[in-house]
């Protein structure tokens, strides 16, 4: 049922929105009343570094990348209160979900947002200086309150990166799933098919996984190249784990 009518998109209510108590405002803007879209999943996430790096992989190497990781991990907005560092991750579903939410979010740069689309969510954003070790300003990071998937390819990658199939009601899973027949464990960047002390269990027999994740894990377990990295699969299983 991967049709336009059942399109899904990932939304993150970023730490600046939580810090400035704009969560309710953002959710209201995205409500079914305004968008015709429905919630398919939601969770409160303490973003760990692996998840942040995978989510923003396309920006690796850019001047603002490290600062962007600090932002999405909550370190910028809650420097002294680490327990408050979190985002709200949501999946919205419905006709044209990706473009509808991108339109309500508005342009990436809050200054552009204010000029070109007054009233959009990102019009309430701010710019934050990116400095080098000596304090020289190198760039400006865009603190823009919300992430929204940009296209269908990104949406599939991002929904699967943040959510397990069991986070969505069965009738709302639009990507193929498969029950694992094997055990998979993760520890220190390595994959195991039997328990290792201190490892996290990614999947056990009977657990339902995204089919693409299972295919990747099977290849990686055999030491073969997979279409995505181990981290891209493992990250969601480490969400809110004590050790991460
Ligand atoms: O979020 P969106 O898809 O609109 O933009 P992006 O180009 O994929 O960038 C992801 C995020 O990185 C943005 O939402 C900004 O928070 C940040 N960014 C930044 O700080 N400086 C830039 N020059 C570009 C993006
Ligand atoms: Mg983007």
What is the topological layout?
Layout: E1 8-13, H1 15-19, H2 23-29, H3 32-35, E2 38-45, H4 49-55, H5 65-72, E3 87-93, H6 97-105, H7 110-116, E4 126-131, E5 137-143, E6 146-148, H8 152-162, E7 177-179, E8 184-187, E9 190-192, E10 200-203, E11 208-210, H9 211-221, H10 230-234
Antiparallel strand pairs: 1-3, 1-6, 2-3, 4-5, 7-11, 8-9, 8-10
Bound molecules: cytidine-5'-diphosphate (CDP) and magnesium ion.
The site of cytidine-5'-diphosphate (CDP) has 9 residues, from strand 5.
Brief synopsis:
By secondary structure, the protein is of the alpha+beta class. It contains 10 helices and 11 strands. It has 2 domains: 3-167, 2-Layer Sandwich (Alpha-Beta Plaits), CATH 3.30.70.141; 177-238, no CATH class.
Written account of the structure:
The structure is a single chain. This protein has 244 residues and is α+β, with helices and mostly antiparallel strands. The protein has helices spanning 15-19, 23-29, 32-35, 49-55, 65-72, 97-105, 110-116, 152-162, 211-221, 230-234, and strands at 8-13, 38-45, 87-93, 126-131, 137-143, 146-148, 177-179, 184-187, 190-192, 200-203, 208-210. The chain is globular, with a radius of gyration of 19 Å. The chain has 2 domains: 3-167, Nucleoside diphosphate kinase-like domain (Alpha-Beta Plaits, 2-Layer Sandwich), CATH 3.30.70; 177-238, no CATH class. The model has no long low-confidence stretch (mean pLDDT 96). The structure holds cytidine-5'-diphosphate (CDP) and magnesium ion. Cytidine-5'-diphosphate binds at residues 59, 64, 68, 108, 141-142, 144, 147, 150.
């Amino acid at each position: 049922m991967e049709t336009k009518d059942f399109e899904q998109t990932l939304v993150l209510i970023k730490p600046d929105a939580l810090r400035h108590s704009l969560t309710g405002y953002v959710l209201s803007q995205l409500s079914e009343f305004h968008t015709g879209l429905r919630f398919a999943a939601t969770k409160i996430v303490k973003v760990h570094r692996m998840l942040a790096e995978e989510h923003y992989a396309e920006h690796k190497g850019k001047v603002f990348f490290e600062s962007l990781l600090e932002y999405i991990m909550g370190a910028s907005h809650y420097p002294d209160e680490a327990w408050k560092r979190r985002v709200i991750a949501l999946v919205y579903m419905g006709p044209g979900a990706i473009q509808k939410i991108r339109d309500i979010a508005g342009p990436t740069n809050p200054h552009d947002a204010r000029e070109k689309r007054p009233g959009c969510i990102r019009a309430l954003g701010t710019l934050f200086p990116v400095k080098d070790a000596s304090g020289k300003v190198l760039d400006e990071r865009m603190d823009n309150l919300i992430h929204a998937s940009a296209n269908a390819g990104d949406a599939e990658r991002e929904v699967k990166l943040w959510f397990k199939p069991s986070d969505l009601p069965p009738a709302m899973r639009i990507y193929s799933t498969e029950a694992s027949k094997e055990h998979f464990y993760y520890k220190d960047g390595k994959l195991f098919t039997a328990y290792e002390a201190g490892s996290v269990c990614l999947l056990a027999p009977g657990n339902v996984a995204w089919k693409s994740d299972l295919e990747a894990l099977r290849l990686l377990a055999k030491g073969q190249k997979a279409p995505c990295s181990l981290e891209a699969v493992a990250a969601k299983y480490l969400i809110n784990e004590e050790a991460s």
